Amino acid sequence: MTDILERPTGGLSLRHRLSRLAEAATTPLLPSDYLDLAAPLRSGADLRARIVAVEPETRDAATIVLKPGADWAGHVPGQYVRIGIDVDGVREWRAYSLTHGPRPDGLISITVKAVPGGKVSNHLVHEARPRTLVHLEQAAGDFVLDPAASKLLFVTAGSGVTPVIGMLRNLFPVTDSGVVDLPRSSHLDIVVVHVAPTEPDSIFLANLRELDTHGAITLVPRYDDEHGVLDVAELAELVPDLADRTTYACGPGGLLDALTAHHQAAGLDLFTEQFRAGFVEAGDGGTIAFDDGSVLVADGATPILDVGEAGGRLMPSGCRMGVCFGCVLPLREGSVRDLRNGAITSVDPISSAHGGVPIQTCINAAAGACHLGDKS
Amino acid sequence: MTTIQQKADNPIAHLSADDIETLGRELDAIRQEVIDTRGADDAAYIRRIIRTQRGLEAGSRALLLFSILPPAWIAGTAGLSIAKILENMEIGHNVMHGQWDWMRDPKIHSTSWEWDNASPADQWKHGHNELHHTYTNVVGKDNDLGYGIMRVDEDQRWQPFYLAQPVWNFVNACFFEYGIAAYDLELAKNLATPKAQRPADFKARVKQTLTKIRHQATKDYVVHPALSIPTGSFVPTLAANFTANLVRNLWTHSVIMCGHFPEGVETFEKTSIDGETRGDWYLRQMLGSANISGSPLMHLMTGNLSFQIEHHLFPDLPSNRYAEIAPKVQALFDKYELTYVSAPLPKQVYSAWHKIVRLSLPNHWLAETTAKNAPSQLAKLYKMTTGGKKVRRTIEMRDQRERRDVAEAQAA
């Protein structure tokens, strides 16, 4: 009997056997397919979160407070989290900074600024409702504070302020009765250069001002309409002891590139984070790269399936007319155009689910440089 | 029925190539309208159906733990039958068609879905989505026409073993899920082929199907009955699960038979699809399918395959939207003077069965048999059945000649 063989790991094997039994009772589904309906945030489930509150910050920004599933492993301030939310019925993934340190109530929050034309950001700021279930990945990102550094400069632009707010709230918790001074933060000397197009658009400004008034930080606001667009060469004037500080910058790519060049030339420490997803521009035709590294050139009128086969690849295929879904492969990055109606599907690595978005290769043509998976 | 190309009054003869392409563009526009308005409501619909189905299944199986009590047996069996029908039709079939892929939800996706049926999803998708939906009603290419074991067209030569096809069809209906699995394996064709010449993956696919069947059977006939032992309900639960599978099989078989078998549905010759345009393909789907009319509940229980015509035109549109486009599709049938075949379920089931019985007999036999000539007709049938190929041909030729003479006499 197998009993004898399994006895040494009796407890484990009982659990194992029970789960095997549950699987045999629910096949072809899994027990979790049923449990998910009742307890989507339980331990062992795919990581999800429920929206607890949507708190407006400015007229186009809001903080979304989330209750993460039981398996949420926590985070370090400054890290970001990828969130999948259904917008118009379609699952969209985006990355957002966690705007606070670990909270005693176990909730997490992200602050989102509605980007003009941004599908997900507008949905989160204006449409999202409490109780909505969203999908989650564990926190990630290396934009976290070096514990050894005590003289810091934060340069933030637009929604790039969010990871910095996360770090500051962890260092100086703001309560109803004001800012709390924690011993672990007493040695810090922090300057925040905060850049925004105009003053009222600056999210978390109230928070930064409060910290400034309290003396926890020195706030240097820079508004484009008032002070002109920031030139990184001006930093030395804005922050006279720039050379003594470790700089953390978060914002759009242009600013980060300029800062990187500036700091390299000056030999200064710099940590950067650009986390707004790169925008994928759809073109007409392009290249198709596969997981195995091979690259094919494709025009904008030939289905990817045909391009692949002409290039000597063994492609999954079926009806070749968009009916049977036998040719589906994941688009990991890039854009494709549906040859039937011109609809564009775009994927960038951050905003799609892990592994990419499955597309039908028989009716889609390359619309720019694409990266395609080998298997669905 | 006779393939459309063989018909004296070809129902598409009045359409020019330009007409057919215009028709294709008009259908494309209907498709695009649905795609443009597809959204959160549709996503909520399929999630609601899935939630309901899983709740119903779990609840019914829980009731069946006490199936020794007759009310629990009846309610549990009814609930499980409905849950299995919903799972196969409105959910499984449609999800595996890619109707919900646009949601990008990996849990409700054609590439990841597996269903409560003997045929593994991969194999079913090949046999159904690729072969049946591409080659709909093309004689010799679409195996759904008689599943390779039945005579469904006058042009197929009659042979004595077709006499038993009403029985085959009924047996197939009762064990439909295994029929589908065998059919997706192309079992008959592959077993008839010498081992060395079979497709390389045949053995692996047979194994995959057998594993699936074992898991399915273990669930329904071992695990759940065993869980019912504490209440002394092993046998009642086993019987309940068998009944639910039987009900599901009979129902799905009936619905599917109504899709392409009723009178008025056209079939097509193999060569007719060479160089077929998108418009031609649409036209073939329009003429090769039949709808079932009825209530929203009936549509739901058929997985909206009651909108077979709309489903065949747009197999990847969400099933909950077929009802709203049906009037637009029907208007196009009217505009192009085509016949939109649609009737209530009992009528379509009767029509399909009638055709199966009719074609189990030699051409014209059923129509020409009356109470008066029954003895001579039976004698003829006996001769054709026992007499061998030559005798059959002779009788067929003689009948054909007689019919021609009668027709000429009438014309004159």
Secondary structure layout plus pairing:
The complex is a heterodimer of chains A (376) and B (412).
Chain A: H1 2-6, H2 10-26, H3 31-38, E1 48-58, E2 61-68, E3 80-87, E4 90-97, E5 108-113, H4 119-127, E6 133-136, E7 151-157, H5 161-171, E8 174-175, E9 178-179, E10 189-196, H6 205-214, E11 217-223, H7 224-227, H8 235-238, E12 246-250, H9 253-266, E13 270-273, E14 286-290, E15 295-298, H10 304-310, E16 328-338, E17 344-347, E18 357-360, E19 364-366, E20 370-372
Parallel strand pairs in A: 7-10, 7-12, 10-11, 12-13, 14-20
Antiparallel strand pairs in A: 1-2, 1-6, 2-5, 3-4, 3-6, 8-9, 14-15, 16-17, 16-18, 16-19, 16-20
Chain B: H1 17-37, H2 40-64, H3 70-96, H4 121-134, H5 165-174, H6 176-184, H7 187-192, H8 202-227, H9 234-260, H10 278-287, E1 291-293, H11 296-301, H12 308-313, H13 322-335, E2 342-344, H14 345-360, H15 365-368, H16 374-386, H17 388-411
Parallel strand pairs in B: 1-2
Helix pairs in contact in B: 1-10, 1-13, 2-3, 3-9, 4-6, 8-9, 9-14, 16-17
